[in-house]
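=== RUN LOG ===
request id: a7f3
mode: sequence -> structure
chains: 1
length: 101
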Amino acid sequence: MVINSGTGNITYQRTIGMSVMEGKGFYYPADSAFGPDGRIYVLNRSLELAGRGRGMRVAVCDPSDNYHGEWGEFGDGPGQFMWPSAICVTPDARVIIADEH
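=== RESULT ===
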Protein backbone atom coordinates (compact mmCIF):
# COMPACT_ATOMS: atom_id res chain seq x y z
CA MET A 1 0.00 0.00 0.00
CA VAL A 2 1.12 3.56 -0.58
CA ILE A 3 0.46 6.42 1.83
CA ASN A 4 0.19 9.91 0.41
CA SER A 5 1.74 12.06 3.13
CA GLY A 6 0.07 15.21 1.83
CA THR A 7 -3.48 13.93 2.20
CA GLY A 8 -3.09 11.00 4.57
CA ASN A 9 -4.82 8.75 2.03
CA ILE A 10 -3.84 5.09 1.79
CA THR A 11 -3.95 3.42 -1.61
CA TYR A 12 -3.59 -0.34 -2.16
CA GLN A 13 -0.72 -1.09 -4.53
CA ARG A 14 0.19 -4.78 -4.24
CA THR A 15 0.17 -7.88 -2.07
CA ILE A 16 3.53 -9.14 -0.83
CA GLY A 17 4.17 -12.82 -0.07
CA MET A 18 1.82 -15.78 0.25
CA SER A 19 0.14 -17.58 3.13
CA VAL A 20 2.67 -20.40 3.53
CA MET A 21 4.96 -21.54 6.36
CA GLU A 22 8.19 -21.63 4.35
CA GLY A 23 9.90 -19.78 1.56
CA LYS A 24 8.23 -16.76 0.01
CA GLY A 25 5.41 -16.36 2.46
CA PHE A 26 4.16 -15.47 5.88
CA TYR A 27 2.30 -17.60 8.40
CA TYR A 28 0.90 -15.90 11.48
CA PRO A 29 3.13 -12.84 11.10
CA ALA A 30 3.57 -11.14 14.47
CA ASP A 31 5.48 -8.01 13.42
CA SER A 32 7.52 -6.47 10.63
CA ALA A 33 10.25 -3.85 10.26
CA PHE A 34 12.01 -2.03 7.44
CA GLY A 35 15.79 -2.23 7.19
CA PRO A 36 17.98 0.70 6.12
CA ASP A 37 18.18 -0.78 2.61
CA GLY A 38 14.36 -0.89 2.26
CA ARG A 39 14.03 -4.62 2.81
CA ILE A 40 11.11 -5.82 4.93
CA TYR A 41 11.80 -8.24 7.79
CA VAL A 42 8.66 -10.21 8.72
CA LEU A 43 8.59 -12.07 12.03
CA ASN A 44 6.44 -15.20 11.65
CA ARG A 45 5.05 -16.96 14.73
CA SER A 46 3.49 -19.97 13.02
CA LEU A 47 1.43 -22.38 15.11
CA GLU A 48 3.58 -23.34 18.09
CA LEU A 49 1.74 -26.51 19.07
CA ALA A 50 0.01 -27.74 15.91
CA GLY A 51 3.00 -27.12 13.65
CA ARG A 52 5.67 -27.92 16.24
CA GLY A 53 7.09 -24.48 15.51
CA ARG A 54 7.36 -25.11 11.78
CA GLY A 55 7.42 -21.78 9.99
CA MET A 56 8.67 -19.80 13.01
CA ARG A 57 11.25 -17.57 11.34
CA VAL A 58 12.14 -14.19 9.92
CA ALA A 59 11.36 -13.87 6.21
CA VAL A 60 13.07 -11.07 4.26
CA CYS A 61 11.52 -9.47 1.18
CA ASP A 62 11.25 -6.07 -0.42
CA PRO A 63 8.34 -3.85 -1.51
CA SER A 64 8.57 -5.27 -5.05
CA ASP A 65 7.83 -8.78 -3.65
CA ASN A 66 11.37 -10.09 -4.21
CA TYR A 67 12.29 -12.78 -1.69
CA HIS A 68 15.70 -12.40 -0.01
CA GLY A 69 15.71 -15.46 2.26
CA GLU A 70 14.84 -16.41 5.81
CA TRP A 71 16.49 -17.38 9.08
CA GLY A 72 15.62 -18.62 12.55
CA GLU A 73 13.64 -21.58 13.77
CA PHE A 74 11.65 -22.91 16.70
CA GLY A 75 13.67 -23.69 19.83
CA ASP A 76 15.45 -22.13 22.79
CA GLY A 77 19.01 -21.88 21.44
CA PRO A 78 20.85 -19.10 19.56
CA GLY A 79 18.91 -18.02 16.47
CA GLN A 80 15.79 -19.85 17.66
CA PHE A 81 12.44 -18.55 18.92
CA MET A 82 9.86 -19.92 21.35
CA TRP A 83 7.18 -17.20 21.05
CA PRO A 84 8.55 -14.14 19.19
CA SER A 85 6.49 -10.99 19.53
CA ALA A 86 8.35 -8.00 18.03
CA ILE A 87 11.14 -7.15 15.60
CA CYS A 88 13.13 -4.02 14.81
CA VAL A 89 16.08 -3.24 12.56
CA THR A 90 18.71 -0.74 13.68
CA PRO A 91 20.21 1.87 11.32
CA ASP A 92 23.33 -0.33 11.02
CA ALA A 93 21.11 -3.29 9.92
CA ARG A 94 21.19 -5.30 13.15
CA VAL A 95 17.96 -7.21 13.71
CA ILE A 96 16.55 -7.33 17.24
CA ILE A 97 13.74 -9.71 18.19
CA ALA A 98 11.71 -9.79 21.40
CA ASP A 99 10.61 -13.27 22.49
CA GLU A 100 7.82 -13.51 25.09
CA HIS A 101 9.08 -16.90 26.23
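=== NOTES ===
The beta strands are 2-3, 10-11, 29-34, 40-44, 57-61, 67-71, 73-74, 80-81, 84-89, 95-99.
The mean pLDDT is 82.
=== END ===
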